[in-house]
Amino acid sequence: MSIFVVGHKNPDTDSICSALGYAALKQAMGEDAVAIRCGEVNKETCYALDYFKVEEPKLVEKLSEKQQVIQVDHNEAGQAIDGLDKAELLEIIDHHRFGGLTTAAPLYVHTEPVGCTATIVANMFWDNDIKMPKEIAGLLLSAILSDTVLYKSPTCTDMDKDAAEHLADIAGVELKEYGLAMLKAGAGVGDLTPLQIAKTDSKPFSFGSYKALVSQISVTDTSEVLDMKDDILAAMKEICDKEGFNIIMLMVTDIIDEATDLVYYGEPKQLIADAFGKDVSGDYIHLPGVMSRKKQIVPQLTEAAAKF
Ligand SMILES: [Mn+2]
Questions:
Q1: Which residues of the chain have pLDDT under 70?
Q2: Can you give the residue range of the structural domain that contains 148?
Q3: What is the CA(117)–ligand 1 centre distance, in A?
Q4: In this structure, are residues 49 and 136 in contact, taking their beta carbons and an 8 Å threshold?
């Protein structure tokens, strides 16, 4: 039975491409590993997979008992594939905060505070002197350009940029031109329903005693989402009621303007007011310069909840 390499639920480009990249590295090192996914591939990731002619990983909704598995791009239980608690977790390769991690057995953990899991995976290829296939370089590059929003996110480090430039050489693409085309392919509401918009790239978190969902959609014009705000708020209410969240936030992130409009539904809104020092009497707040959930939204809410 192959070892599964899997990213988080509601996978983004990093979760899909780092899983494919890490599985390829493991295979090159003589281990039987295969990338899987536990959710639908988004438009941006489809663009990258099509461009580099790589098949999407197989969908596995739930792990069987004793399945050996490696987690990439996440560690929080609420974001992980169903059945992980009964599976055998071998490794975690990640670049996120630890969100209450407990495991049954010892394991290999490699995390670094860089902008993308793919940066870590790329360096593992090079540290081990493993030749990287061109298409894997392209996918890892795609993940870095996605997670760092073409270097504009405050999460981006020099390690991400160095890796991306090296990967672009191997993949044979012009970094900026390719990155912008990929981001544009993934941006915007397209034919998404209000419910799908509210759940775009969503991740659950606990802030103090409050259960929260924080989603993020990338756009080149925020009005295409804000024009549908009432329908999106209705969808957020439905998600809160059905899935037991106290509060839902949708980051509408303008990748050109480098700003986020944070749309919210639920209680306590005061948490958002405290976290960002804003008046929350409306349905959303404008946060200039904010692009990163990991650095500019989650820590602020965590800190505000601690003082609540
Ligand atoms: Mn990531």
A1: none
A2: 3-185
A3: 5
A4: no
The CA 281 to ligand 1 mean position distance, Å, reads 33
pLDDT at 48: 98
Task: Round the CA-based radius of gyration of the chain to a whole number and report it.
Answer: 19
146 & 278 share domain? no
DSSP one-letter string for 64-81: PTT-EEEEES---GGGSP
Q: How far is the CA of 116 from the centre of ligand 1 (A)?
A: 5
Expressed in angstroms and rounded, the spacing between residue 72 Cα and the centre of ligand 1 is 8
Q: Determine the 3-state secondary structure of 52 from DSSP.
A: coil
How far apart are the CA of 61 and the centre of ligand 1, in A?
20
CB 159 within 8 Å of CB 140: no
Asked whether residue 154 falls in the same domain as residue 205, the answer is no
Q: How far is the CA of 229 from the centre of ligand 1 (A)?
A: 27
Distance 230 CA to ligand 1 centre (A): 30
pLDDT digits (tens, 9 = 90+) for 225-242: 999 999 999 999 999 999
213 and 92 part of one domain: no
Distance (Å) from CA 124 to ligand 1 centroid? 16
Residue 147 CA to ligand 1 center (angstroms) comes to 6
Domain count for the chain: 2
Same domain, 64 and 13: yes
How far away, in angstroms, is 267 Cα from ligand 1 center? 28
Place of tokens 């996914």: 37
Distance of CA 242 from the midpoint of ligand 1 (Å): 28
Q: How far apart are CA 106 and CA 241, in angstroms?
A: 38
Whole-number Å distance between alpha carbons of 141 and 200 = 22
Do 11 and 87 belong together in one domain? Answer: yes
- Overall pTM surpassing 0.70 (yes/no): yes
